[in-house]
Amino acid sequence: MTGPVVALSGGIGGAKLALGLARILEPDRLTIVANPGDDFEHLGLTICPDFDTLMYTLAGVANTQAGWGLAEETWHFMAALERLGGETWFRLGDRDLATHVERTRRLRAGESLTEVNIDLARRLGLRVLLASASDDPVRTMVETEGGRLPFQRYFVERACEPVVRGFVYEGAAGARPGPAALRALRQPDLAAIVICPSNPFLSIDPILAIPALRFAIADSAAPVIAISPIVAGQAVKGPTAKIMRELGLAPTPAAIARHYAGLIDGFVLDERDAADLDIPTLATATLMDTLEAKKALARAVLGFAARLAG
Ligand code: GDP
After folding, report:
1. What number of helices (H) and strands (E) belong to the chain?
2. Is the terminal CB of the chain with fewer CB neighbours within 10 Å at N or C?
3. What is the pLDDT of residues 164-193, one digit of tens each?
4. CB of 140 closer than 6 A to ligand 1?
5. What is the rounded CA–CA span in Å between residue 310 and residue 299?
6. Does the Cβ of 300 fall within 6 Å of ligand 1?
7. What are the sequence ranges of the domains in the chain?
8. Does 93 sit in the ligand 1 pocket, CB within 6 Å?
9. What phi, psi does 269 have (nearest 5°)?
């Protein structure tokens, strides 16, 4: 298989497969489209958590234990802010802060989010293209039993404790697609579109809610393959299974596949799971604890795509 590949990704789970793909493909064959739904304005700064997790992971500077932020981080800014009575519920490390300050400065100077983010990633040494899904704000709102919460208030401040009733992707319907993301999805020789094992509601649906991107995916001749973030009835990390139960869905790979029905041509689930689906499936090892496991899953997914295309 020689054509280019596009991967749609959130933060932690998606970034693991994105790293595996980045290590087995030539850099100019891979575009990763980052979830915009977690982005928000905080302390006067534009923060793009999933983009930054992907950028730091692919640059080899991520804090892999926490799953967010930078390795070897210090917290003097947060401590000083706390002393002044500032808002500290969202943790920003000293080194990480530079990313948000520089991004915000350049956005205010008139550059687009796509331009700024691609350049920040290049400066950190990324050779694959990490593309923003949109240059317009797309903001995930969580409908809970207690009312509507902006994503970070739900996820960080309330630690995913409120019971979820649904999601709204504010701004998505009218959002222009990120030009680099759209260009990548429209490549005529595309070999695969990979939906990473990310939270479908919080990480993938905000991308799919941007009409031009969803249309480009549906319209592409390339096989669209999703990988289950649910393994043996549980999320590997994070609230995916809890949210599924609250929405009345069984936390199973089959329910994930049904969530993407009509869009995907193939589905990858863990070898210890089973699902009776009416699309081709691949059962393989999907736990990506090591770099080898990430590369092995990336290879398996691309091999599956090549068989589907052939
Ligand atoms: P977030 O934006 O940081 O929440 O990250 P994502 O949405 O990209 O990833 C969260 C999802 O990744 C969760 O549903 C996890 O179950 C899943 N996940 C994390 N690690 C793995 C793994 O090694 N294998 C698989 N299959 N899923 C994983």
Report:
1. 12, 14
2. C
3. 999 999 999 999 999 999 999 999 999 999
4. no
5. 16
6. no
7. 5-309
8. no
9. -130, 170
Of 294, 259, 293, 254, whose CA–CA distance to 277 is shortest? Answer: 254
Given ligand 1 and candidates 196, 231, 256, 268, which is best to mutate, with the most ligand atoms within 8 Å of its CB? 231
Residue type, 19: L
**Per-residue model confidence as pLDDT tens digits over 2-35:** 899 999 999 999 999 999 999 999 999 999 999 9
Residue 207, CA atoms < 13 Å, CB-side half-sphere: 29
Let me know: does 281 contact 267? Beta carbons within 8 Å.
Answer: yes
Nearest to 287 by CA among 305, 270, 268: 270
Q: How far is the CA of 105 from the centre of ligand 1 (A)?
A: 31
CA-CA distance, 195 to 14, in Å (whole number)? 8
Mean pLDDT of 255-263: 97
Measured distance CA(193)–CA(196) in Å, rounded: 9
Q: Regarding the domain delimited by 5-309, which CATH topology (the fold level of the hierarchy) does it fall under?
A: Rossmann fold (3.40.50)
Cα(87) to ligand 1 centroid in Å equals: 28
Buried (b) or exposed (e) across 179-203, using 16+ Cβ within 10 A? ebbbebbebeebbbbbbbbbbbbbb
Task: Note whether 35 and 204 are within 8 A (CB).
Answer: yes
Global pTM reads: 0.97
Tokens 């490390």 belong to 93
- Residue type for 67, please? G
> pLDDT tens across 113-165, in order?
999 999 999 999 999 999 999 999 999 999 999 999 999 999 999 999 999 99
Q: Tell me the residue type at 137.
A: P
CA proximity to 95, closest of 111, 112, 74: 74
Give the distance, in angstroms, between the CA of residue 285 and the centroid of all CA atoms in the same chain: 20
Identify whether the C-beta of residue 271 lies closer than 8 Å to the C-beta of residue 283: yes
